[in-house]
Fold this protein.
Amino acid sequence: MSPSPFWETKTLAEMSALEWDSLCDHCGQCCLHKLEDVDTGAIALTDVACTYLDLGTCGCSDYANRKKNVPDCVQLTPENVGELPWLPETCAYRLLARGETLAWWHPLVSGEFETVNQAGICVRGKAISETEVDDMEDHVTRWIEAKVKSGGSAFG
């Protein structure tokens, strides 16, 4: 009998840097720009990706320098993943922080990154780079949140 996988036996705080990074499913959703209403604090999601998001792989094209390149890029930590309202409901960090399990399509479960795309979770083919956008407000979308909350694919 094989031992349980690390994400089922360790807390987020107990994980090594390599284990922590492997939790990222490369959906790219957290790299989409969000707009916050200054009056209400409501967060509107857009289909506009950070310049550094590789829209083919949905991974950061300069991960090692992301904080230098984008000073307001939020680094996920065991302390903040449960508190970030804009993290997708499907995010492995969020799920594990809540004591939930990883989905069938997560690369650690399926063994391949393509299942994230097959499940309709990643932004591949559905997002555009911020370099192509003049007015971010023209790209506010509700389909991401609506699909995820309904249990369907995030990008149907």
Q: What stands out?
A: The radius of gyration is 16 Å. The longest strand covers residues 43-49. Residues 145-156 have pLDDT under 50 and may be disordered.
